[in-house]
């Protein structure tokens, strides 16, 4: 199993899908699992129940996804904030998809659905990325840079990192 971590806009969901397709294995994304568990989209969970409740659902989703062992698993950008999740990742192949602020801002601008970035996405992303970078590095067994690179180039970089 390969777990993808990184900042919002790093491409975890996109690259995870492409990587799983290239390998012919199952793809899971904890954000999609959380939406299914909650029966509503992530922005609504934040509005109705708050971030703390989202993080509780996220810890359950990470534990369940790791236990079910899909071929490729994308985590939400903030999943590594919980020590419980960082501990659960030990022993797995964890790839940090790194991204600099310029590309991350461009990419998150492409889509809605990230409640933490609803207001002033650039400043918020800069803060989140500074706060979290050491945690992504702590859990990662490898880092792949995504800036200015195509999905195909990134997938090609990840494939040799996977022990079969
Ligand atoms: N390497 C890339 N180059 C250009 N755009 C990308 C790349 N990877 C992802 N994207 C785009 O960036 C946006 C965010 O990607 P997403 O996979 O949702 O990131 P994450 O799950 O890490 O937040 C999407 O619109 C996606 O199509
Ligand atoms: O950075 C975060 O705290 C979050 C990132 C999102 O996932 P992506 O990193 O896939 O955008 C999603 O889990 C939620 O909006 C919270
Ligand atoms: Mg995602």
From TrEMBL:
First-listed, main subcellular location of the protein, grouped into a coarse class: cytoplasm
Binding site for Mg(2+): 13
A single BP term in Gene Ontology: amino acid biosynthetic process
Amino-acid positions noted as binding substrate in the UniProt annotation, renumbered to this chain: 31, 55, 77, 132
Cofactor: Mg(2+)
Pathway in which this enzyme or protein is active: Metabolic intermediate biosynthesis; chorismate biosynthesis; chorismate from D-erythrose 4-phosphate and phosphoenolpyruvate: step 5/7
Residues binding ATP: 9-14, 114, 149
Keywords carried by this UniProt record: Amino-acid biosynthesis, Aromatic amino acid biosynthesis, ATP-binding, Cytoplasm, Kinase, Magnesium, Metal-binding, Nucleotide-binding, Transferase
Cross-referenced InterPro entries: P-loop_NTPase, Shikimate/glucono_kinase, Shikimate_kinase/TSH1, Shikimate_kinase_CS
Record localization: Cytoplasm
First-level EC class: transferase
Function: Catalyzes the specific phosphorylation of the 3-hydroxyl group of shikimic acid using ATP as a cosubstrate.
Quaternary structure and interacting proteins, as annotated: Monomer.
Name the record gives this protein: Shikimate kinase
Source organism of the structure: Micromonospora pallida
Gene: aroK
């Amino acid at each position: 199993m390969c777990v993808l971590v990184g900042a919002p806009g790093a491409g975890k969901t996109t690259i995870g899908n492409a990587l799983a397709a290239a390998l012919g294995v199952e793809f899971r994304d904890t954000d999609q699992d959380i939406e299914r568990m909650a029966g509503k989209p992530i922005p609504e969970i934040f509005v109705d129940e708050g971030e703390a409740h989202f993080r509780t659902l996220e810890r359950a989703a990470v534990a369940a996804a790791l236990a079910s062992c899909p071929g490729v698993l994308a985590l939400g950008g903030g999943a590594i904030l919980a020590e419980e999740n960082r501990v659960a990742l030990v022993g797995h192949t964890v790839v940090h998809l790194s991204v600099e602020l310029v590309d991350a801002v461009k990419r998150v601008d492409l889509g809605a659905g990230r409640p933490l970035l609803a207001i002033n996405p650039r400043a918020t992303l800069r803060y989140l990325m500074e706060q979290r970078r050491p945690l992504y590095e702590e859990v990662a067994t490898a880092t792949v840079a995504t800036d200015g690179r195509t999905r195909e180039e990134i997938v090609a970089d990840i494939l040799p990192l996977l022990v079969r």
